[in-house]
Amino acid sequence: xxxxxxLQQDYLDLYLIHWPFRLKDGASRPPKAGEVSDFDWExxxxxxxxxxxxxxxxxIGVCNVTVRKLSKLLDIAQIKPSVCxxxxxxxxxxxxxxxxxxxxxxxxxxxxxxxxxxL
Length: 119
Hints:
Strand content: 15-25%
Shape: globular
CATH topology: TIM Barrel
Oligomer: single chain
Number of strands: 6
CATH architecture: Alpha-Beta Barrel
CATH superfamily: NADP-dependent oxidoreductase domain
Strand order of the largest sheet: 1-4-5-6
Radius of gyration: 16 Å
Number of helices: 4
Helix content: 25-40%
Structural class: alpha/beta
Distance between the termini: 38 Å
Mean pLDDT: 80
C-alpha cells in the first residue's frame, strides 16, 4: 500500500472515507448541481474491509454521511464502521442522535462551542 510505504508504517490505526461522493473534474467547492459523479460506495467499502482482513488497517470508518447512507452501508457491511465523523451544530442535532444509534463511535467537528450539545 503506497500510503504505508510513504509513512514508513506497517499498518494504519484508522482509515476513513472522507466524502461519500466524487467530484467531477473542474468542480467548484462546494460543488454545484451536476458536479458530483457516481460513487461505488459498496465497492470502496469492500476494498477497505480487505485492508482490515489483511491487517493493513485496524479500523475503518466514514465521514460526512447522512443517516440514510450510513444505514445503507450497515446493510451491506461485513465489518461495521468503527467511526462516523460528522459536523455538529444545532441544525444537525437530529442527524447526530440518529447516527449515534447506528455507529460504534461518533466524532464531531464544529465551528461552534460543542459543550451545548448532548446526545
